[in-house]
């Protein structure tokens, strides 16, 4: 249900589905649902946002909340996090667990992009308990990554174990969870002298680094390391995994492709 070969944001919105929330019929209200749902499913997120906000403004009750969810997820996809938070934060206490869970999961992914790992872990852990199946497993997986990036390896492993128990159909997701638990390629080592990582990029802002964290998380537990350029500029490097040998790191670099490179982790 989700792929990671292009930019991060449209991919993020596909992590947590929406179809189960809707039963589109023939009324004018249902036509409005169909308009923003169709746009969302076709990755026309700007159009989905406009249609969903219009629908939310004109409706009330659960119809409004469903439209607000799509508005918030669509805003996130088009890099409008402030608008996304405006629509999604009120939904965290929604009585419908699917709405509350998907809102919390998206807000958790925003927190990851902003490198607010403790906040992300809390949002995603809560979302994983409201959702079910693969959606719940994805939320628990990302909660685990956030816990690991916060330095809480024990809680991270517990979250991965929960994710493993919840996953149903997505084989790629099963593999990602298994890799986290086995330490390959995510690794269970701490960065240090004689260890290696795959650096997928070094960015001038935390926001761009956060987006890369989500985009490349499928290849292992990603983290941000503050490094300096040759001119002394502080950069936020996104690195995947920690490996005891350069050979192991090179295998992961080959999977990722692009301009990523293997680096030593002694500077972390």
Gyration radius, in Å: 19 Å
Q: What is the domain total for the residues? A: 2
Report low-confidence residues grouped into runs of 5 or more.
1-14, 23-29
Proportion of helical residues: 55-70%
Taking the sheet with the most strands, its summary is: 4 strands, antiparallel
Q: What is the architecture of the largest domain at the second tier of CATH?
A: Alpha Horseshoe
CATH superfamily of the largest domain: Tetratricopeptide repeat domain
CATH class of the largest domain: Mainly Alpha
The computed structural class is: alpha+beta
SSE string: HHHHHHHHHHEHEEHE
Put simply, the count of helices is 12
End-to-end separation: 34 Å
Number of strands: 4
Structure report:
By secondary structure, the chain is of the alpha+beta class. The chain folds into two domains: 8-182, Tetratricopeptide repeat domain (Serine Threonine Protein Phosphatase 5, Tetratricopeptide repeat, Alpha Horseshoe), CATH 1.25.40.10; 196-264, Sporulation related repeat (Alpha-Beta Plaits), CATH 3.30.70.1070. The chain has helices at residues 8-13, 28-41, 45-58, 61-77, 81-88, 97-113, 117-130, 133-149, 153-166, 171-182, 206-215, 246-256, and strands spanning 196-203, 222-228, 234-243, 261-264. It has a four-stranded antiparallel beta sheet. A hairpin with a 5-residue loop joins strand 2 and strand 3 (234-243). The radius of gyration is 19 Å and the shape is globular.
């Amino acid at each position: 249900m989700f792929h990671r070969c292009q930019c991060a944001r449209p991919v993020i919105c596909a992590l947590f589905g929406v179809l189960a929330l809707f039963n589109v019929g023939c009324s004018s209200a249902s036509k409005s649902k169909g308009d923003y749902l169709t746009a969302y499913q076709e990755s026309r997120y700007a159009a989905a946002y406009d249609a969903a906000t219009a629908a939310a403004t004109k409706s009330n009750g659960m119809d409004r909340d469903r439209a607000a969810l799509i508005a918030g997820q669509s805003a996130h996809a088009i890099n409008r996090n402030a608008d996304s938070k405006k629509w999604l934060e009120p939904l965290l206490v929604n009585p419908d667990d699917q709405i509350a869970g998907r809102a919390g999961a998206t807000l958790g992914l925003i927190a990851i992009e902003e490198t607010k790992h403790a906040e992300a872990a809390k949002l995603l852990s809560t979302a994983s308990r409201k959702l079910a199946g693969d959606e719940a497993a994805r939320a628990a997986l990302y909660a685990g990554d956030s816990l690991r990036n916060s330095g809480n390896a024990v809680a991270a492993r517990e979250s991965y174990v929960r994710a493993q128990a919840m996953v149903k159909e997505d084989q790629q997701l099963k593999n990602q969870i298994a890799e986290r638990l086995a330490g390959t390629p995510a690794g269970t080592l701490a960065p240090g002298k004689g260890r290696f990582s795959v650096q997928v990029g070094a960015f001038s802002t935390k926001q761009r680094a956060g987006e890369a964290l989500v985009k490349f998380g499928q290849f292992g537990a990603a983290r941000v390391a503050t490094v300096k350029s040759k001119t002394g500029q502080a950069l936020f490097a996104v690195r995947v995994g920690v490996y005891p040998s350069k050979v192991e790191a090179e295998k992961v670099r080959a999977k990722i492709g692009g301009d990523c490179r293997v680096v030593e982790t002694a500077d972390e």
